[in-house]
Design a protein that fits this description.
Length: 511
């Protein structure tokens, strides 16, 4: 029995081994190339990439086209002196050139460095210098961003890109160690001064397959779409690489996000499997537009942050299936999931789910000792005889489900009570006047800390609204967990990946 045959979570937890994902690939633990596994071995299987653009038009490309052009790109890199292990930065939204550049870089065993198109000059310069990139692929409009790094060779899309590929062979024989570096993924830098490059290897795609098959329920024939930008972890690893590795076409959104264009794309591409951040699902709920589109969604999943229960129930009522969460980290991959791949999975709204088969997850205290069931602890994974701390807090219930309680540093202790900011945020989002909210703990001379909420509201800020929100949370959640302080903002500070920068909110309070 292989991993594609498991019918239940219990069966997968009992029988899954880390040797099984390798059976799905051509490569071995010794020699493995990600571009070959995601593109070349699927030549002849039809569509690989579907893209919906902000101007409303759409494009589709098959595995054959991406394979040939990425081979040309690999050969052309070698012609200009790029060697095994050199870094190639790619600052493009989803386009044909993005996928050709990314997979072409991997084919020749150079290292891809995805960069977000909304970066300013400083953010781009840091990544180019820190990675030591030799080449930057970008647009004519954005190339001036690289002015501080004149030694980097710039290839712009359009005529320059076509000329760069011209005359190069349409086949490339891959040959590199499985443990060779493939991607530098820069973290968003929410808790450190500068972003840090997390180095991923060609074999890293293998560790994603249990999450793809068990957690996201990918099956051959799925029509999948993920609007997250591939410059970030979700859009790259779960939105692009893991489905392509299974021969499943991917759908992407390119440009400034527009809900109507996004929904239009889901209809045009006949999408039945959707992966997105909770923010996108909340926008879907609040848009009032779903009734205008004949959507065929059969599977939904999300990651990056918890989903409020109101949005969860809206999606389940609308599509007849629940959204499934996925939780992990850039450093160690998928850890805890709700499982779209198992028909008998019992979805608990708001829960992270249960540990991924093959993962040994524990909740620990500051000293590294396991906490009692029902107590808040830090999520940690056992690997190679050591504990890797993920820096998120959670509680495990009597059924073995994990419940996210925020970052370890964000948990609030007030008058001896342990308060989860995530739980308070979830309750507040049910208030009709609140569009977005972020909760932190702030010092208080009597209680040690109290709950403070930063609110983006659809109504005009007022003392009356503050009082109404406080009473709402007292009635809905608890009389000790309500926000004793409320500050209205026009928008919440967020990373490029969409996570709220709570460090900035804490600094704002101290000013």
């Amino acid at each position: 029995m292989g991993m594609l045959d498991y019918k239940s979570y219990e069966e997968a937890r009992e029988k899954f081994t880390w040797e099984q994902p390798w059976e799905l690939f051509d490569g071995t633990p010794e020699n493995f190339n990600m571009a070959h596994e995601c593109i070349d071995r699927h030549v002849g299987k039809g569509t690989a990439i579907r893209i919906k653009f902000e101007d409303g038009h759409r494009e589709q490309y098959n595995f054959d086209t991406i394979s040939k052009m990425s081979s040309q790109f690999a050969h052309s890199l070698k012609k200009i002196g790029v060697e095994f292990g050199d870094r190639v930065a790619i600052m493009l939204d989803p386009t044909l050139e993005y996928y050709v550049s990314f997979f072409g870089t991997l084919k020749m065993a150079a290292v891809a460095v995805p960069c977000y198109t909304q970066f300013g000059p400083d953010a781009l310069a840091f990544r180019l210098k820190d990675s030591g990139a030799k080449v930057l692929v970008t647009t004519e409009e954005l190339k001036s961003m690289a002015a501080e790094t004149p030694d980097v060779r710039i290839i712009t899309v359009g005529e320059v890109f076509r000329e760069f590929l011209s005359g190069s062979p349409e086949q490339f024989e891959t040959n590199n160690p499985a443990k060779h570096e493939a991607v530098y993924q820069y973290t968003s830098g929410t808790t450190r001064k500068y972003p840090e490059a997390i180095k991923h290897y060609h074999r890293s795609i293998v560790t994603l397959i249990p999450a793809a098959v068990f957690g996201r329920g990918f099956k051959y024939g799925d029509r999948y779409f993920c609007p997250a930008n591939p410059a970030w972890g979700h859009g790259l690893w779960h939105g692009t690489l893991s489905p392509l590795a299974l021969g499943i076409p991917v759908g992407a959104y390119s440009g400034k996000f527009d809900m109507e264009k996004f929904l239009e794309g889901l209809v045009e591409f006949k999408i039945d499997n959707l992966g997105a951040a909770p923010t996108v699902y909340r926008l879907m709920k609040n848009s009032g537009l779903l009734g205008n589109y004949d959507l065929k969604i059969k599977k939904m999943h999300y990651t990056g942050e918890p989903m409020d229960t109101e949005t969860f129930h809206f999606l389940k009522d609308t599509f007849g299936v629940p959204p499934h969460s996925g939780y992990g980290s850039t450093e160690v991959g998928a850890l805890i999931y709700q499982y779209a791949g198992f028909e008998n999975w019992d979805e608990k709204p708001g829960s992270l789910g249960k540990p991924m088969p093959g993962r040994d997850i524990v909740l620990i205290d500051k000293q590294g000792d396991p906490v009692a069931q029902g107590d808040i602890g830090e999520i940690a994974m056992k690997r190679k005889g050591e504990l890797f701390r993920v820096k998120d807090a959670a509680v495990m219930d009597e059924d073995g489900y994990y419940w996210h309680k925020g970052r370890v540093d964000d948990v609030i202790i007030s008058s001896g009570w342990t308060i989860s900011p995530t739980e308070v945020e979830d309750s507040m989002l049910k208030h009709p006047a609140i569009l977005e909210v972020a909760v932190i703990g702030v010092p208080d001379k009597d209680r040690g800390h109290i709950v403070k909420a930063f609110v983006v509201s659809g109504q005009a800020p007022s003392e009356e609204l503050k009082k109404d929100i406080k009473n709402f949370v007292k009635d809905k959640l608890s009389k000790h967990e309500y926000p004793r302080e409320i500050e209205f903002l026009k928008s919440l500070p967020k990373t490029e990946g969409g996570k709220v920068k709570k460090v900035e909110l804490k600094n704002r309070h101290q000013q």
